[in-house]
Structure formats: C-alpha cells, structure tokens
Amino acid sequence: MPSSSRPPAITSESMDEILGGRRMRRNRGSDWSRRLVRETVLTVHDLIWPIFVVEGTGIRQAVASMPGVERLSVDEAVKDAVKAESLGIPVLALFPYTDDALRDASGSEALNPQNLVCRACREIKKLGLNIGLMTDVALDPYTSHGHDGLLDGETILNDETVDQLCRQALTQVEAGSDIIGPSDMMDGRVAAIRGSLDNAGLRHTQIMAYTAKYASAFYGPFRDAIGTNATLIGDKRTYQMDCGNTDEAIREAELDISEGADMIMVKPGLPYLDIVWRLKESFRMPTYAYQVSGEFAMIEAANANGWIDGERAMLESLMAFKRAGADGILTYFAPRVAKLLTERT
Ligand SMILES: NCc1[nH]cc(CCC(=O)O)c1CC(=O)O
Ligand SMILES: [Mg+2]
C-alpha cells in the first residue's frame, strides 16, 4: 500500500481530541464500578413462582418440556411453599393438572371447593407463611376441550363464561387465595369478579389481571404440564390477543384498570417487552410480566445443548423485564434465581 493512502495513526492524544474526554468505558472498568452505576436491580421481591399441582401424595413428577419443573402433590406443594418463604419469594401461583375423568365440557371441577388448587391453598394457608397465593381464573385445566371458556359449537361464550369465572374466583378465595389472576381474556370479567368478591365481603382480595395476553406459540410446555395440549380443540385466537397489536393492549389495560384491577400483566414476556414498557409508561400501575413456559424451555434447551450459559441467560432475561418497567415477573426460574440472589448478598 502506498504510504500516501494510509490514514494518520490513531494515538491516545488524537482519540482524546475526538472523544473530548468522554469515555463511556471508564465506568465499566471494574466490578465495583459496574455495580455502582447499574440502573436496574433484580431482587427476590420481584418474583412470582408458578407451580403445578397433581393428585396423590409424595409425588414430584417431571414435566418433560420444562426441565427442573415438576408437578407436585399437595403435600409436596406445601414443602415448596415453605421453601418459597425461606427464599423470600413473595407469591406462589398455583396451576392444577386435573385428572382426565374430572374434565368435562363445562369445566365443572373449577367450582369444586375440594379441587386440587383449593386443597393446596387450604393446606398452605394452615402454615401461616409470609407469602401470598395467586390462583388462575380460567376454565382450561378443567374442560374436556381445553378452552378457557364455555364452548357452543366453535364459539367461546363470553357472558356465560364470566358468570362461571365469578363463581370459580369465589371458590378459590374461600379456600385461601389472596390474588385472583383471571387468565381467560373474556370481556368484562374483571368488573364482574370484583363485584362478586365485594358482594361476598371479600373486598381485600387483590386482582392481577392478565391484561394483555396474546395467542401465543410459547404456551406449549405449560399445556403439557396441565395436560391440555392433547385435548385442545382449535386455538385461542378468538379471545387472546393478536401478536401484531399494541394499541389494543392499551385499550385492554384501560378497561381492566377501570374495572378494578389492582395489578396488570403482560404475557408472554420477552417477545412482548415493548408492551410491558408501553403499559408501565401509560398507566403507572403495578405491572407484571409472565416469562412463560416456552421462554423457559428455550433457555433450558439451549443450555442443555451447551449453546448458551443458562444461568447467565436466566439472569439477563429477568433483568430485561425489570429494565422494561416490570414490577415483577412470573417465572419458573423463581426458586433458582432466588437462591442465587440470596447467596450473593
Ligand atoms: N388459562 C390458561 C393459561 N394460564 C397460563 C398459561 C400459560 C403459561 C405458560 O405458558 O407458562 C395459560 C395457557 C393458555 O392460555 O393456553
Ligand atoms: Mg380484557
């Protein structure tokens, strides 16, 4: 190369001039400095731990598509509740794997005060732990067709479903649930449930609305865990949101908040961080994100293949939720990350 085409050598002095002294890397130079300038923190108080409950005693049943996640019989779920408290996790979310024989077209088991979720709530509550219990209001773990609502031909009935959801919520609260989580995406269910609870004198039961819940491919492993993958007829696009929409999430949030939701949620999580951000910026409500089963499975699968460092990916993904404005995250990583966080401090 002729020397005339060679650019002048870059020196520290010439870089000083270019940068005017502004070097972003200065603050990144040491661990203590990175900790000092970190804007967002993840703590155990940000975690909601979803667990699966199954019939029997002494049972811990692996879920193949969710490595490390198990279906627990009620007695084992009680042990995990004790573990949650000792780790400082504020809330457990309970989901049932209902025996096939108990699933029917109307999801009547949802109203049984002795169903798995209700029994688990009662047993956990007996211990008087410093944790909250959240229960899912939707019919899918109980219906033979796997839908969240009542089915008439191919139509999910909105208003008839809401009537049943109100009774399901009451049944759960009577068993000890602290937070009702309507995950069904029927219109008007937050107002209806709030009204039913208030009528029954249950004015202090909180509602965390699954406000922006999208029809998503990322729920697959969860449907394995609660046994609805095999039975689900069609899809949930007539009630869950379309993945192309974001203004619609704002309208959903306006409705849920005006109907009395105490907290709102976005689901799935990582692919929908823009929605988390918009809702938090627009409403300043306690806002949560659900890092769903498929997101968990992706990280676990890549880790199992040696393609990513699973532990770092777990922490980075959870930090991303906080950075986007989430006040907390429902995550199957909850016990693992809580353990890591408590060991470090
Ligand atoms: N009411 C259903 C419900 N509640 C929570 C999840 C998914 C959670 C996950 O994937 O981890 C779903 C799945 C669905 O809508 O089919
Ligand atoms: Mg809605």
UniProtKB/TrEMBL annotation:
Top-level EC class: lyase
UniProt region (Disordered), positions on chain: 1-22
One Gene Ontology molecular-function label: porphobilinogen synthase activity
InterPro entries in the cross-refs: ALAD, ALAD_AS, Aldolase_TIM
Enzyme Commission designation: 4.2.1.24
Pathway: Porphyrin-containing compound metabolism; protoporphyrin-IX biosynthesis; coproporphyrinogen-III from 5-aminolevulinate: step 1/4
Keywords associated with the record: Heme biosynthesis, Lyase, Porphyrin biosynthesis
Reactions it catalyzes: 2 5-aminolevulinate = porphobilinogen + 2 H2O + H(+)
Pfam families xref list: ALAD
Highest taxon of source: Bacteria
Subunit: Homooctamer.
Family affiliation: Belongs to the ALAD family.
Protein name: Delta-aminolevulinic acid dehydratase
UniProt source species: Roseibium polysiphoniae
Lineage: Bacteria, Pseudomonadati, Pseudomonadota, Alphaproteobacteria, Hyphomicrobiales
